[in-house]
Amino acid sequence: MKRAGWAETAVVACVLTALVLAIQWGLGSFSAEIADDDTSHYISGLFIHDYFRAGLPNPLNYLKLYHSHYPLLGFGGWGPAYYVVEAAWMFVFSPGRISVVVLAGLVTAAIALALYLFCRRGMGRILSGCTALAFIIAPTIQNFAGKLMLDIPIALLCFGAMASFVRYLDTGRTVYSLTFALIASFAMLVKGTGAALALLPPLAIVIGHRYDFLRKPSFWLPLPIVAVLTGPWYWVSFGRAALGFRFHWGIDYFQTAIRENSLILWYNFGPLILIAAAIGFVAVLRGHKGPSNGLVGAAALAAAVWLFQSIVPAAIQDRYLAPLLAPLLVLAAWGIQVSVTRLGAMLRFTGVRAAVAIDAAAVVLLGSILPSALTVRTRVTPPPYAVMARQVWANRNPINPAVLIATNNQDEGSAIVELAMIDPRRPSLFAVRGSRLLGGGGYNRQDYLPLFQTPQQVMQQIDKYSIPLVILRRDPARDAWAHIGQLEQARQLYPDRWELIYRNDRVSPEIDLYRIRGNVDKRGDQAKLIALSMPNALRDQDRP
């Protein structure tokens, strides 16, 4: 790349990054609570960071110990690859909230930059720039650019793998087939949705009519590489990951997914961009694919993600389509160029006038998604459990460093993250999940069951583990976890033992921190606490 090309890339990268960070700032991402699946992704990255910081102790023992203190490790449900990236980032910068949000923003900006450079090779700057901007302001991307979800990294890896395969189609060189295999393997070790890349090569062959590649040994090279690199992980973990599938295989799911995913795309881009993308896709199928195989790769990736998300019944969520958005915008840009060029030929204007018309159409289509883009709402700030975590640490007894978290499903994870984030000697505090100590059957509302029937039994369980502190947030939901109400009953039944030491009434429902008299000065039984919250796969038969 010439010096002018590098300068252009640097300027575009800075502009796109600044825009992403500005969106994160406007949505309150830098001060918002880490919630939902983000909590598990954060703790898993923090675990790898702390494991290396601890000097690489026995991995299984450290995993058992760490999970017992901060029981949110996501290994098995998700692959470990991105957690290594998180850990490396934390070493260079910090494990703090702003640090990890910036990492998420840079991944988003990297996709937008790659999208700009990909389109720039065969389209104008304005059209390419509008394509990158459309990606950034799409509601799904705005919503998740400031979160630690794995779907945006998967989108980056899918786009990178597609670009490598395009280079392979252009040159036939084995190195690009190898690069595709390595990126695809990494994607699959981040999250199972990366397996959509398995559909990309055959779809690219069909769409691009490049059947001659089927005779090349290098075309088949990714199969053994991906099998060796990812096969053992999926052999061990697929059973656990499949437990999270919310649908069943079959035509019913296929029909539901097609309908719901179509609505998601409509919400993100509206009719004009989707029509342009359809025109671009048809143009590629009919052989109008530009000077290289880039559009073939974009069409193949879009089709691969669409088919994968329509067949594999994990769930239907807008973030699962994140890897589809970038290639769809490439096709939309091509659809604009093809449509305006043909219209220009009919109206007998070419050259500069045609280029101006293409740029104008790109700006119009970018403006068409602004109504949806402006619907994204600011997140609630400040995080209520950051304040509560500081109070826990201020009242923590070093000989009994444990706190019971009795909140709703989402808040449990948020509280654990805040407690871990400020732990100076991780792992040194036992964050006990109420859904583990007092409930069973899993952590979601669908399979949750209370372990006890009366507040007296609940109090006995608290005393069994000598729990000295309790974070209690009442849950007004009709399907609230039963143990939260049982704890409130125990507080009323034993008022002499429950001492309110802090109340956060700036949120609703309010959050209380209680000291349990009689347990505060007891020495905590770490063996019991470790056995209580260790990963199920490592649980000993002689659980106390």
Outline the structure in words.
The model is unreliable at 540-544 (pLDDT under 50). Helix content is 61%, strand content 6%. The radius of gyration is 26 Å and the shape is elongated. Helix 2 (37-53) packs across helix 4, helix 6 (125-137) runs antiparallel to helix 14 and helix 12 packs parallel to helix 14 (322-347). It has a 5-stranded mixed sheet, with helices on both faces. It has a two-stranded antiparallel sheet with strand order 3-4. The termini are far apart. By secondary structure, the chain is mainly α. It folds into 2 domains: 134-373, no CATH class; 384-538, 3-Layer(aba) Sandwich (Rossmann fold). The protein is built from 22 helices and 7 strands.
> What's the rounded overall pLDDT mean?
90
Structural class: mainly alpha
Helix content: 55-70%
- β-strand percent reads 5-15%
Q: Please write the string of helix (H) and strand (E) elements.
A: HHHHHHHHHHHHHHHHHEHEHEEHEHEEH
The beta-strand count equals 7
What general outline do the C-alpha atoms trace? elongated
Largest sheet: 5 strands, mixed
Strand order of the largest sheet: 2-1-5-7-6
Q: Provide the gyration radius in Å.
A: 26 Å
- Alpha plus pi helix count: 22
